[in-house]
Fold these 3 entries.
Entry 1:
Amino acid sequence: MNSFIHLTIPARAEFIDIVRLTLFGIANKAGFSYEEIEDMKVAVTEACTNVVLHAYSNAQPGVIDLSFELEHNGITIRIKDEGSSFKYKPADSKAATLHDKELSEVTAGGLGLFMMHALMDKVEVFSERGTEVILTKLFGRKEEMA
């Protein structure tokens, strides 16, 4: 049976720690290793930071809706905003080519999607009304198998 946990926070940097603590509690209870939890925390922090920096203007403060779904084979984390839509394809193609670049060539903020892909087993991005990032981590999945 799948378990769902929902969390809504203001889209402000000082609330991202609440997401990290919630994720730690859920993932620890589910049986993920310390390293897997740390990887997930980095990926989720990147996704939430993107919302804080890019989704809402200062005049229009918004929220980040998160859901954590525990499944028999892992966890799926959804990070959703209702702000300015994010153009996924161009950023994704840049992320895919980072292995050919020197760190000095990568633009600020250009590592977020790359890191999410490197740390999680599956990353999906939908940008219709706002943006939704869906991150999946499977139990016992070793990096060399990904």
Note: Residues 78 and 134 are 4 Å apart (CA to CA).
Entry 2:
Amino acid sequence: MSASSSCMSSSPVPESHAWVRTSAHTAFLTVDNPSAMTLEGTNTYVIGDLGESFPPEPGAPKPRAVVVDPGPADQGHAEAIAAAVDVALIVVTHWHQDHVGNVPALHDLTGAPVRAWDRELCIGAGRLQDEEVLKDVSVEISVWHSPGHTADSICLSIFDDGMILTGDTILGRGTTMLDYPDGDLEDYLDTLRVFKDEPGFTVLPAHGPHGEFLEEACERLLDHRLNRIHDLRRRLKASDDDLGPSASSLAEDIYADVPEEVRGPAVKTLKAQLAYLMDIGEIAGFTD
């Protein structure tokens, strides 16, 4: 999916967005890009020594910070970020446009380097590495490669605060789509199982409300995904179409009541499920 994120539910849209303080070293500002796929919008995070009062008053010194996911192209949002922090580094959690579209504007305003898992998204700096510790600001930030939603997805943890920025790997509400063929169900399940064994973190998602405990989120999402696979197996068996099923035919049945705006992402996730069943030898293949 090139221009939006990944949750398949709608929500009320706030009249205005303001900075939300989430811990001693983190805060976020939500972009005004609400939709059924992005929930209230994309949450752009800043990480650094933010002080007791954030954002700073006009004319006051700005804290030095790492900016995560500048959002879709929105000059006003880029200017609001640059007004609040001295940008040391820009990091993107994955390649979708609702996360990277504003990178050029923020880079032009601040001159800050840009890092991502995908080398092509980087500007003036090298690509991120799994288990790398970023030391661009006063608090250490650990990088976790977390494929599944996309192949290049990463998460960032701040051990000092017990926070983890999960991008679209774990949303604040609902479930993420798997952007097949770039997204992969087996990778996603592996990512959730790794994170499930990392208790003590609170989730800061790129979309939706923050505050869920990481372990509980992973248990919830693992149960959801495994239940979906069980349901798909049942449907295939009932239809006698478990050798080379048609994704579009299955989608017409499974997603008959799904709004058109999320039908495409839903079908991509379905294809990721079928690819998973093919990889483990339960079906021979599938067609579009």
Note: Residues 42 and 67 are 13 Å apart (CA to CA).
Entry 3:
Amino acid sequence: MTRFDKELAFLREHKGAIIGNWQVKIRNAYPGYYEGDTLLIETGRYFEYITGLHIPKEQHEIMSNAPNWAKRLVENNIPLHHILRSHHYWRSAMHEVLGESRELEVGRVLILLNELEDRMQYYQETVCHIFLELTNAKLSEQERAIIQLHDDRLNLIGKMAASMAHEIRNPLTSIKGFLKLIRENMTNEDGSKVYRYLNVVENEFENIHMQITGLLSFSKKRVMEEPFVQVTPRQLLDSVVSLLNPRFLNENVNLSIELLEEELLTIQKVAVQQVISNIINNGLDALTHVKHDKEMMIRGYVESETYVIEFTNNGPAIRPEIQKTLFEPFVTDKVEGTGLGLAICKTIMQKNNGGISFISVDERTTFTLNFQIREMREA
């Protein structure tokens, strides 16, 4: 027995009307979500919980079923705001029924509604708490699955890259040997033009070699096969720029280089040259869209414990929709691009205790390489 026997008896007498009222509201708000007999069974239990004031809310049997109900909501992809709106519809349905009674005292009805509201609030908070825990667990599981899929994808790329590099390296080794023999067997009578041709071929050979090194960064052997050596930033840059100098001349690009500080960088030289070559080539590709005054600037300087190299061009900005994912595999804005270049660059820089980033706005794109020089000095 409770002090609200009369009011509770009235509610139970109109149980069907209250539940029916609630169902109309929830189904109109979210059509297709709440159909079938299961809903009728659960709403009946919930009504008994709300009106069962003689049983403390914490001890009511419905609380033991709250985890199952929350799990069912998550499995059926029911949004959290449905739970909150449902609470509002229950309160509204009971208000409407109680408001039709002329026999009940308004003051007592208001006090009763406060107690019923407390029970509804308690159940809602319990279900919401479990719902959020289950949702977070589900999201974590999905994230792990995505990471695994991403790793599997990279492993596949690695196997393909290693296979391609192996097949290409064999004939390249032969080509390099024959180029060396040709140069050794040439005489002064053969003319300077042939020497220039040989220089071009050897430069292109080195460029291909760097591309293969980049591909190997996705294989299991990766770039860790290459030893670490000490080079100055100028030594690092000059060898790459000399290879790309014909392109700067042919495409009428003004190149300026400012290396304000010189440091010894302990790096994998060929791998990092691949990064620099990729960045410069991407910049030159962007400058093909510029009609006049094509410019590229390379700056090197020390900032705190870091040596920084910046590559800036005045080409168009990188499209905003791909900027956040630019270093991920297969992301590119080039029609015939593979989307692997910058992903390879990121891997190489990480292996060399460095980082790569960029800023791109209209008529100014800057890629930045960072090398930790404090650890280099200690090493």
Note: DSSP finds twelve helices and seven strands in the chain.
